[in-house]
Design goal:
The protein has 263 residues and is mainly α. Helices cover 81% and strands 0% of the residues. Helix 4 packs antiparallel against helix 10 and helix 6 packs antiparallel against helix 12. It is globular and about 50 Å long.
Length: 263
């Protein structure tokens, strides 16, 4: 039995459910790509196409999040413009890098990108504590601002190339730069994600690497999961959610390595 775009019922359902789980995770603590990317690999999508399709699938939810944060940017519009411009430029570079690399090479690299993102997610509470302490001593980081800006631009490139963990690294960089308002920082983070992924997405669609038959159920699931999670996960303890997502991320990273190197 075939459904939309020729996908079988079971495959369509699995991808749609993975999208819901990814949307729930993004709404709870971020990290939905830990589920979405391996699911597409499991369904036989090439690594480059899986990365491009996942980036496009999470875009509607990220755009909705950016809209909800618009009030936080009332006093930071110049910063928002600069972030949008440079994240778009980074997205172009990262997108071209993804299109330049061949599927075989990216397939070998993908498990290590998953591992890097999982490590960043695991240590993110420690990074947040570290950057909060640094933020209380602006003189200590004044001389590092250029380095931090370069780090942020590199993060934007990474966002166009793969993206998992981009938000965590950006929050760390903004705090080291001297920002203290978490709402403004989150607003800038979502703007950077929308800008980088939108520009990279245009490149991916033009190059034909977005798997449209998987994009529809995946994007629909992430939107549904994000809407449900944003309404019902506010009462769940953040540390409990993070531990659960961290365990899931390590399991899926191990599965990604196994699928690539143990078959």
């Amino acid at each position: 039995m075939e459904l939309l775009f020729g996908l079988g019922f079971v495959t369509y359902l699995l991808v749609f459910l993975a999208g819901i789980v990814g949307g729930l995770i993004n709404a709870a603590a971020g990290g939905g790509m830990f589920v979405l990317f391996p699911m597409l690999i499991f369904c036989g999508v090439s690594s480059v196409s899986a990365s491009a399709t996942t980036s496009m699938a999470v875009l509607p939810g990220t755009m909705a999040a950016a809209w909800t944060y618009r009030q936080a940017l009332s006093h930071s519009k110049p910063a928002a413009v600069w972030v949008a411009v440079f994240s778009a430029l980074g997205g172009i570079i990262g997108g071209y890098l993804l299109l330049w690399i061949d599927n075989h090479s990216f397939a070998r690299l993908a498990p290590f990108l998953m591992l890097f993102a999982t490590i960043m997610f695991t240590i993110s509470p420690w990074l947040q504590n570290l950057t909060m302490v640094s933020g209380r001593h602006p003189r200590r980081v004044a001389g590092l601002k250029i380095a931090v800006l370069l780090f942020l631009f590199g993060n934007f490139i990474y966002g166009g190339f793969f993206g998992a963990g981009m938000g965590i690294m950006m929050l760390a960089g903004l705090t080291l730069y001297g920002m203290t308002d978490i709402h403004t920082m989150n607003a800038l983070r979502t703007i950077a994600s929308v800008s980088a992924n939108s520009i990279a997405g245009i490149l991916f669609i033009h190059a034909g690497v977005v798997d449209m038959k998987f994009l529809a159920p995946l994007a629909s699931g992430t939107i549904l999961g994000g809407l449900f999670g944003s309404r019902h996960f506010r009462s769940v303890r953040n540390d409990l959610m993070r531990r659960s997502i961290t365990i899931l991320a390590w399991l899926l990273t191990a599965l990604t390595f196994a699928m690539r190197y143990l078959r």
